[in-house]
Here is the input.
Amino acid sequence: MNNILKKYQEYGYTQYKMSKFEEYDLYVKNKDFLISDNIITFTDLSGKLMALKPDVTLSIIKNSDDDANSVSKVYYDENVYRVTKGSQGFKEIRQIGLECFGKVDDYCLLEVLALATKTLGAISDDYKLDVSNLTIISDILDECDVSTKVRNEILRLMGQKNIHELEAVLTKENVEPKKAEILLELTKTYGDKETVIPKLEALLPGNEGVAQLRKLLFALDDNNVQIDFSVVNDVHYYNGITFNGFVNGVADSVLSGGQYDNMMTRLKRKSKAVGFALYVSMLEDLLFESSEYDVDVALLYDEDADLSALCDAANALRADGQTVLVETALPKAIRAKRVMKFKGKGIIEDA
Here is the structure.
């Protein structure tokens, strides 16, 4: 993970460190933004109800200045506490990511997308970043004259790529055929920019959201980026560019993010914002895959061995890039690729 954090530093992002807990009220007011609304709470000595933080973004925004005329760029490496999908209890979860807030423009969006791809690329060469533009979908839904409940149902079905049920809902709600056709086509849309952008321009001529996708994705120039309108994060908080990241070997998205100007507005902020989070806990099996061996060399010595010579011999092996365990006998639980014997003042033999 250190190489990822170093990459953020190279782009001028500074590390943001925070307390392990926040006032519970912050999460109650914004529970829709959280992955899980299960929160660990406690009462501090002043009688105030506090919570072990289940989210990082809310804390960063709450504790940062609201300046719409400049840009702040921070990254974090923090633990959050929440119930994960499919589990029955709370877990401490490591999460790293970054936030860019303030006067966010298209360059900021491009930079965050680029860092998202670099983050995924540092984990695996086989990755995908699926990108959407919620503004396109929201503008069409605004013209459909449907209730908030129906709107949310449409977004849910688009997120599932459930064409059959989506078509049934659009018909039942008497959505104008042309608008229904566009929503259905967007739900089916998936592919690289060279294939998808021209289709979108034909489907939605002159659309500013499509023009923004063209501008950003052709400047990004990454063949692992795909356009996918099933990336429909909560529109009460998110807007504009949103994205999910995947790596081969993990079924679910390991990275998610996008613009969240709507959340900033709900927090009474004038600033805009964009960011993403990488869920490190989902990558443990991939990143920390158990090796066939625990150590490269087990160096065994007699009790009368010359300590200086023994240390020199072990360090010489380590300087050669090998991991070295120095013991008088090989522990039963240790799997060593090579077992060597130190004799005299520097004679090493294979045991």
Remarks:
- The longest strand covers residues 71-83.
- The chain has a mean pLDDT of 89.
